[in-house]
Write a structure and sequence with these properties.
Helix content: 25-40%
Shape: elongated
Distance between the termini: 20 Å
Radius of gyration: 22 Å
Structural class: mainly alpha
GO molecular function: transcription cis-regulatory region binding
CATH superfamily of the domain at 70-126: Homeodomain-like
Oligomer: single chain
Number of strands: 0
Keywords: DNA-binding, Nucleus, Repeat, Transcription, Transcription regulation
Organism: Cucumis melo var. makuwa (Oriental melon)
Largest sheet: none
Strand content: under 5%
Pfam families: Myb_DNA-binding
CATH topology of the domain at 70-126: Arc Repressor Mutant, subunit A
Subcellular location: Nucleus
CATH class of the domain at 70-126: Mainly Alpha
DNA sequence: AAGAGGCCCAACCGCATACTT
DNA sequence: TAAGTATGCGGTTGGGCCTCT
């Protein structure tokens, strides 16, 4: 199907943002919140397309952005996350508070790539360069394309999700093999809550239970989950990275495209 | 001092996906 | 179910800045 342009390009500004435009955008978002990017420019009196506004806000104007140089710890975290996730910059950014995907992408391309090359490591495969050139080892990397993980809560699709999850589970050992020293506390958590104690409901559902498949054969937490019972020990199982370690994937916390 | 070349990063573009009608 | 629309993501670009000669 054809695509219409995201905006009327003939009447929009392009290029660097002016201070006035920034101020208009900030004050509009402060007053009305984020979202509705398509209608925002007109409402805010900006001659920009919605995409441009969104990008400007997310990458530059957001108040929670951490400006300044990356720390050594952040460097290492990015490298390790990249070795697991590849160029999934938004997922990587999700683990670095105050950093944007664009910022990390730029930083990767300008600094970290070179840093790894200097260490003799291929920035794509994260393997020693000479080893990479010797042979293409048939390795499996986790891909987060939509066809790999389709998390839908709709009941009719839930079995497909479980199958795809099991596929990820089988690949788990390869992650450990590639990063034996990796202990990033990579617990993907729900979006930040200023008052987490207010969250109501079971804290750690297994994947099947999260899909509403309690008591199904795919439920991996028959002992620990016990939704709605007083016997459930919800603290037994933590949020490991993607929940894979425990065979538990909390779909609620996955950032889906 | 000034020109050339490289680096950096904000912004753009095209596409994929989700959502709506 | 198909078509239309909105949003988000990753790759790429271009212009300003910095360094070197």
């Amino acid at each position: 199907m054809g695509r219409s342009p995201c905006c009327e390009k003939a009447h929009t500004n392009k290029g660097a943002w002016t201070k006035e435009e920034d101020e208009r955008l900030i004050s509009y978002i402060r007053a009305h919140g984020e979202g509705c990017w398509r209608s925002l420019p007109k409402a805010a009196g900006l001659l920009r397309c919605g995409k441009s506004c969104r990008l400007r806000w997310i990458n530059y104007l957001r108040p929670d952005l951490k400006r300044g140089n990356f720390t050594e710890d952040e460097d290492e975290l990015i490298i390790k996350l990249h070795s697991l996730l590849g160029n999934k910059w938004s997922l990587i950014a999700g683990r670095l508070p105050g950093r944007t995907d664009n910022e990390i992408k730029n930083y990767w391309n300008t600094h970290i790539r070179r840093k790894l090359l200097n260490r003799g490591i291929d920035p794509v495969t994260h393997r020693p360069i000479n080893e990479t050139s010797q042979e293409q080892v048939a390795s499996t990397t986790i891909s987060f394309t939509a066809t790999d993980v389709k998390v839908k809560v709709e009941e009719d699709k839930s079995m497909v999700v479980v199958e795809e999850f099991q596929e990820l589970e089988r690949e788990d050992f390869q992650i450990e093999e590639r990063c034996p020293d990796l202990n990033l506390e990579l617990r993907i958590s729900p979006p930040y809550q200023s008052h987490p104690e207010k969250i109501v409901g079971p804290k750690n559902l297994c994947f099947a239970c999260s899909l509403g498949l309690q008591n199904s054969k795919d439920c991996s937490c028959k002992i620990g989950c016990s939704i709605g019972t007083s016997t459930g020990n919800n603290n037994k199982v933590g949020y490991d990275f993607l929940g894979i370690k425990n065979g538990i994937l909390d779909y609620r916390s996955l950032e889906m495209k």
